[in-house]
């Protein structure tokens, strides 16, 4: 049973601020587009409020559940099996924008790849604790981990969704490195994956175009470089203080996907450098409190579980912000708690609920 202690208040408050700020920015970035497409300026923000309300309700429940419950192998492997089954099912459903990423029903959609992140963290936390002291044993530890990671990442790549697959690999890499993975295995994995990524990027036309747009977006300003240029213009036009909430111009059918992957650009335009720095500070505090709770966890399972969830949030935030600022090639990775998307929103809040329970039991 969980100790009768209170969860980390700072982590809790930061999450609530991010949720409220995210809903406000979804409304600001999507109202005009929603009015034009669906006749209702609240179309996207209302759905985001529903997802946020559901996610917060589950978060409050989950933060009261002893995180050791997720250590049971039935929970770990049942979760993995369900997620893998869902990742397979999407290929038998109708494609959406030439991708197989969503399971849709009754007007709502669910993205199994978002659930795969949490399922993988459960597995790694459980398995790394069980293999304590034997991490670098190839057949006993590394091969089973490689099989699970490759299975999840491979199914997501086939959707296709390279960004989420990269996020899975990044989370796994951080946990394995912290667990004490030998440098020779790190070097071997880099040597093995480098040609794979080369084929996945430079042998696939639209991904190659993204790399070229990243290197020189002005070469084709109305073509492959359009999205990157509009993103940079949006951030730059905000200046120090921004144009004001709801006053952004680039979201008016110039900046593609302003309410999803590029919502950080809208934050930069409307709230300026001050707003973006405040948002960055919130994620830095989240990282600090998440790592603090993980390090103080009473056992290795809690440590790996808390660290994995913290990395899931912060790695995605780092990648998304870097893409918007032109520091990384364009990837379809949402900004946690801010980007429009019900599955990502709910999964993130469920994960934070688990992290808050870890903090509750931290010494």
Explain what the structure shows.
- With 363 residues, this protein is an all-alpha fold.
- It has one domain.
- It contains 12 helices and 2 strands.
- It has helices at 9-38, 43-62, 73-89, 112-130, 138-157, 162-179, 183-202, 205-215, 226-237, 263-295, 300-324, 342-360; strands at residues 103-105, 108-110.
- Strands 1-2 form a two-stranded antiparallel ribbon.
- Helix 2 (43-62) packs parallel to helix 12.
- The chain is globular.
- The two termini are 15 Å apart.
What structural class do you assign from the helix and strand content? mainly alpha
Query: Mind telling me the C-alpha Rg?
Result: 20 Å
- Please indicate the percent range of residues in DSSP E strands (runs of 2 or more): under 5%
Tell me the number of strands.
2
Largest sheet: 2 strands, antiparallel
Order of helices and strands: HHHEEHHHHHHHHH
Question: In one word, what is the shape?
Answer: globular
Strand order of the largest sheet: 1-2
Number of helices: 12
Number of structurally distinct domains: 1
Mean pLDDT: 90
């Amino acid at each position: 049973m969980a100790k009768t202690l209170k969860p980390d208040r700072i982590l809790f408050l930061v999450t609530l601020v991010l949720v409220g700020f995210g809903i406000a920015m979804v409304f600001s970035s999507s109202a005009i587009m929603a009015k034009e497409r669906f006749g209702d300026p609240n179309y996207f923000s209302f759905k985001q409020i529903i997802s946020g309300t559901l996610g917060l309700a589950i978060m409050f429940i989950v933060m009261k559940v002893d995180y050791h419950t997720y250590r049971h192998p039935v929970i770990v492997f049942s979760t993995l099996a369900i997620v893998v089954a869902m990742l397979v099912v999407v290929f038998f459903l109708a494609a959406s924008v030439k991708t197989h990423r969503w399971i849709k029903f009754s007007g709502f959609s669910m993205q199994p790849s978002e659930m795969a992140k949490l399922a993988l963290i459960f597995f790694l936390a459980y398995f790394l604790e069980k293999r304590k002291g034997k991490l670098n044993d190839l057949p006993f530890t590394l091969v089973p981990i490689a099989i699970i990671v490759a299975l999840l990442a491979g199914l997501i790549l086939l959707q296709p969704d390279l960004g989420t697959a990269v996020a899975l690999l990044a989370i796994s890499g951080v946990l394995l490195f912290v667990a004490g993975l030998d440098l020779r295995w790190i070097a071997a994995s880099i040597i093995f994956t480098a040609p794979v990524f080369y084929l996945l990027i430079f042998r696939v036309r639209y991904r190659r175009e993204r790399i070229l747009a990243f290197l020189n977006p002005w070469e084709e300003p109305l073509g492959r470089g359009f999205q990157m240029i509009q993103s940079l213009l949006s951030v730059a036009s905000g200046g120090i203080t921004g144009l004001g909430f709801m006053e952004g111009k680039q979201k008016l059918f110039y900046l593609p996907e302003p309410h999803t992957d590029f919502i950080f650009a809208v934050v930069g335009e409307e709230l300026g450098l001050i707003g973006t720095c405040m948002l960055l500070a919130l994620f830095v505090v989240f990282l600090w409190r998440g790592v603090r709770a993980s390090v103080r966890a009473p056992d290795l399972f809690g440590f790996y579980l808390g660290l994995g969830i913290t990395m899931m949030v912060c790695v995605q935030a780092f990648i998304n912000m870097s893409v918007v600022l032109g520091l990384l090639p364009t990837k379809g990775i949402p900004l946690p708690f801010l980007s429009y998307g019900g599955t990502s929103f709910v999964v993130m809040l469920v994960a934070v609920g688990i992290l808050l329970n870890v903090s509750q039991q931290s010494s």
